[in-house]
Design brief:
- The protein has 127 residues and is mainly alpha-helical.
- It has one domain.
- It is built from seven helices and no strands.
- It is globular.
């Protein structure tokens, strides 16, 4: 079955977002805007790179990518809200990601998308 456009858009959005975050972290470090220890920088970059896994799995038609995407986003939004420490402007900054996340979930659980992930799973079993 052909991959639905929704899966492609959400996956590429996630990968582009990760690339921007990774670039931002590295530029802030190398331009001296942050004084992180190298160990912290490496751990941040590993976290960003590991979070590319759901997008790649969704592009391959794996339902586990969709599930991992949901868990990673819930963790990221929760982590952002926790780090806001009750500071209202920072909490307001989590509203857009929450809305985007809800829209993504609605789109990723449309009947055509469900069929795509189920078909990919049954094709794998038949091989």
């Amino acid at each position: 079955m052909k991959r639905p456009a929704v899966v492609t858009v959400v996956s590429y959005y996630f990968l582009i977002n990760l690339f921007i975050i990774l670039t931002n972290i590295l530029l802030n470090y190398f331009l001296g805007f942050t004084n992180l220890e190298l160990e912290s920088l490496i751990m941040m970059n590993i976290g960003v790179i590991v979070s590319a896994i759901p997008a790649l799995l969704m592009l391959k038609g794996k339902n586990s990518g969709r599930i991992l995407y949901i868990f990673f986003e819930i963790f990221a939004i929760g982590y952002s809200a926790y780090n806001a420490n009750g500071y209202p402007p920072a909490l307001i900054g989590t509203v857009a990601p929450i809305i985007l996340f809800i829209v993504s979930i609605i789109l990723l659980y449309q009947p055509a998308v469900n069929e795509y992930f189920n078909t990919s799973k049954s094709d794998e079993v038949q091989k």
